[in-house]
Design a protein that fits this description.
Order of helices and strands: HEEEEEEEEEEEEH
Radius of gyration: 22 Å
Strand order of the largest sheet: 2-1-7-10-9
Largest sheet: 5 strands, antiparallel
Number of strands: 12
Helix content: 10-25%
Number of domains: 2
């Protein structure tokens, strides 16, 4: 009987210690293009999956994966300009799956292209489950064939699920019971 109790105790400790990896994949998110502080396109609702989730006006594409958001220009002509002054990319309803979480930080990990390379951490605002990328600094950047994009990595804190707390409690109770019988 003592061996069975120890096996149950080990199982409960392992179950509590191996939390599921939280991710945006499978999450329903909302993407909105803002201009001059108001809505310009969207909100567009998407399920985060394995490819670009959508775009604004077939010109600016956004792609989300487990913990990053990439926004890229789809312009492919050599001579032209894109005016993105007073624009911002807004992503909301970022509810981490399968465990709930909240955004505690965001950092630009890559910014490529004329004007786009000016985007830095100071252009990011976040709350518990939303991110705003302010691209007003780009102004009217010259559009080239070279890729233009920005990738932001989200830093999160995961909130324990009630089931995880119950398993932790059971592990503590089982540990106390095993020690008392000895």
């Amino acid at each position: 009987m003592m061996i069975l109790q120890r096996l149950v105790l080990i199982f409960l400790i392992l179950a509590v210690g191996t939390a599921a990896e939280a991710s945006l994949v499978g999450d329903a998110i909302s993407a909105e293009l803002l201009r001059n502080g108001g809505n310009f396109d969207g909100p567009n609702l998407h399920i985060v999956g394995t490819g670009p989730e959508g775009n604004w006006f077939n010109q600016i594409e956004y792609d989300l994966d487990s913990a990053t958001i990439t926004v890229r220009s789809l312009f492919d002509f050599e001579d032209g300009r894109i005016w993105v002054d007073d624009m911002a990319f807004s992503f909301t309803s970022l509810d981490w799956l399968p465990t709930p979480g909240r955004i505690t930080g965001a950092t630009v990990v890559d910014a490529v292209g004329e004007g786009w390379d000016q985007i830095d951490d100071g252009d990011l605002s976040f709350s518990d489950n939303s991110l705003l990328i302010d691209v007003a600094d780009i102004g009217s950047a010259r559009v080239t064939i070279a890729p233009q994009s920005v990738t932001v990595r989200l830093i999160t804190t995961h909130i324990p699920e009630p089931t995880t707390l119950i398993l932790a409690g059971l592990a503590i109770v089982a540990s106390v019971c095993c020690r008392r019988r000895q």
